[in-house]
Amino acid sequence: MYRPLRMGQPVRLGVLVTLLVLALIGCATQQSEQACEAPVEGSATIDPDSLWEDATKTTIGATGKWTNKVELADINGDGQVDVLFANGGNYDYPGEPTFSQVYLNRGPNHMFKEATRQVFGTSPMLARVIKVRDINADGSPDILVGTTFQTQSRLYLGDASGNFTDVTKTHLPQIKASIGDLEFGDVDGDQDLDVVLADWGPESPMMSEGGRTMLWLNDGQGHFTDVTAARMPDVPVQFSWELELVDVDNDYDLDVLVSCKVCEGSFLFENDGKGTFSDVTQGRLPQFSNNYDFEAMDVNGDDYIDLVTINDSPYDQEHLFLNDRHGGFNNATARLWPESENAGLDDNMDAFLDVDSDGDADLLVGSLSGPERLMMNDGSGKLKLLNDNYEYILGDTSGTLGIALADLNGDCRLDVVQAQGEGAWPEKVFLGKDIPVDSAAAVITQVEKTDASGADRPIQVRARVHDNKSPTMPHDWRSVELRWTADGQTHQTPMRWYGEYLWRGTIDEPPASDFNYKVCATDAAGNETCASPSVVVRMGVGPDPTHGHLQGRARPVEQPATPNMAGGCILLCTRGGGES
After folding, report:
1. Using the 8-state DSSP alphabet, how is residue 8 labeled?
2. Is the pTM of this model over 0.85?
3. Preceding omega of 314 cis (within 30 degrees of 0)
């Protein structure tokens, strides 16, 4: 425990100074003298020429597989974000089965270590997608690989140290399918993570009649049961490469969005709250063919989730759909993303990030036929192209099929990993260079209002918590907690992610008398924010504290130098903003 120093302690003071100097030296060495110092305000201008620098040779080295998507996750519990590539071609016909690849992060200034066989064993696959989550609630990340061209997807349970066991035969439905994408989330409210899978059906996706979107329910121990016939719409979806779980109507359950390349449009399936879905596409989801991707985020700050779509017809154009607050979406592209900012290129994937740390969600688009493009959000959802259509901000790559974002080296900046295939093969890693460090607090909305007095049973509180980044992952957070005060004492319990950006926490023994509660989130860079029910907390903005609510400001990090969730030091990663 820290105690104030007294005048009679000169020796201890010297020791403290010595330890402080050593800590500073150690942190500077570990992070290559990258200090995480920045004001709360975002940068006034962003230079697209030097945002990221190519670090492929000093991280993962040379690769040469057809890679469809990339997942970033800490799979061995060492606090470093690892890289998993889903490998297997081809575009519309099967290539030779191959090994997906795993690279373990060993910290700043160290090469990643390939651990493909350690994780996936000796069986090659035709992998389209890899997702990492804890599916049996043992605190260890597990890996689900979705495979294509009528092959069996595979599940690997982790032991928290980087070792994995293939439990496909005992834990998964034995179904040969063509999985274009999959997402985890608790769709039936039973406190475990289920999985929804996009299946394009047999044969070539260009010629197939399509497949039914599948739902596998989790028993809480990681055993999944196929309940597609009873719970999913009997709607064939052709050539889907993208599926998202999104709470479209802010009722705290997860609805389903499925893209389609060769259909007249994509699909929206509404959850009844218990895990049974109905097709509500007509009139609720604008229709465009050739849709490759959905990306979900509240882009205009109205506390409802909006959508960006990629590569739609005609002219391979992106679209921005704003939530209509009634369970559907309106096409707002012409108003918020005009043609001058919206190039018609052959794009494949996009991801949200707050690149200038100003508290709103910007957009990075990965392209197959041109440079990656960065769209800056003005806070109202209006997107402006930062780099022109022929200015490369992430290297001269011509085969980007997937992108993912994380702080790989602990300097409080988001780095970019590209999955390359179809037109190019080497995967790429770009480390943040001149982008501002993360000084923006998380966004907390939809804190559930519940009767918080005299309950004779546990109270569950749900909220939407994100950092203007998609997707949200465990390594993005130091903590997400439910806190409450009763009889002059403060209590807290961790909240658990259950899909999209939704979290829930439980007060097992609520106080008999009235009490107040709030949701608090501290991101990986140390920015802390809290919000009470019916109070929206955003970067540097909050209600008047005299009204009994906590202001939404990033708090300064004051603890001594210890490793953060990304493996760096937090002593120098201080944040502006006063105490809330």
Report:
1. T
2. yes
3. yes
